[in-house]
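Hi P.,

Sorry for the delay on this. The queue was packed all week, but I finally got your sequence through. Input first:
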Amino acid sequence: MRSLLHLERWCNDGSPSGLSFGAHQVSPAYRPRTDTVDFPADGLVLPWGEVEVCAAAPSSALAREIVRSDGVVFMVHPDNPVLRDGTPGTARRVAPTASARTVAVLDAGPVHYAKLHYPGLLGRVPREMDAKRVRASVRMSAALDDATELLPDGCAYLPESIGVVARLDGAEQGVVYREFVPRSRSGGTGGGMQPQIPMFSLFSTDLRAPEDPPLLVDLLRGQGDGARPGEAFIALLDLLLDSYTALVLGVGLVPEDHAQNVLIELDPSGVPHRVVRRDLLDWYADMEIRRLRKLPTDFARVLDTEGDPERAYGGRSYAFDFRLGEYVLDPLIACAAEHLGVDAAGTRAWVRERVHALAATYNVDLHDYFRPFELTSRYERGLRIWRDGRPLFHPGPAPVYR
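Then the structure:
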């Protein structure tokens, strides 16, 4: 955990938006970029009759920690003003991750994460957690549980298996509990843990060792199977693309794959073997794909080419071209080209060919899936306020990776 938290907080150049460590209101002591290793956060024990609990197959250890006979544990960020009302609770030792309001709970029975209600601005948007967002997160976790047998072994996720909603100080607030052990078709609900690396840490500068090369260099050069760095890099990209298309085209679950939400898990020999995704709140269910695969369609956050084609096609492009393309593939390829001599143009051409080949295995023609095929969609990068909805997608440049 210590190594992971170091990568989260100190080997992270932030979002291309430039707002990751800029426009926010969190107190300095609770920010990721602080020398404070951890801090106490209150765990209120609320009566059963005062909370709504959502669950999606939580581990028995987490369920025992959160859902108790005397009430339900509701973690509260120290900046949350309900703490000043003197509500009694049990303090837990927590550490911020790359996100100031998602903390690792270190001294409970099982190590886990808590995505907390934050009554202010972090990055570009307010970070309140209400019932709608809690339910969406846990529903997506349940959908992934149901889909594991349809996904490749290299596609894993951190389940958001318990959500709690309460009214505190007259306002609706929520918290989502995220498990520490990934799940996938090959297992993951128990057993030993393998190292996980946040995607941004592969190409970012380690602020505690700024002279060191990016971690991607050590990772690809250090593989013990004799693979050359260029070959190992293609294998890493293939793992990422295979898992993405399995989710999106195979089961109609569209992740938000920016570099904070994607982790690479290493096998015992140090070779990447699973992509682990986290933070399920902003995932979409693609209704066209779900209906085609005869899968459940009871989701709040959807892309529906029948009901709202503009948003559906825009959302598909946003997820692939903008998030995965500009926030993950672009910096990965740029890093590999600069430090390992990888041919950037040739790699982008390989990605295009590979994505079309993977789509064909799901009987999907990308010229139909993305419309218009010659343009991309994105949100504006400037600061925006998001409460009950987001701005419509805006046209972007020609696609790079499809």
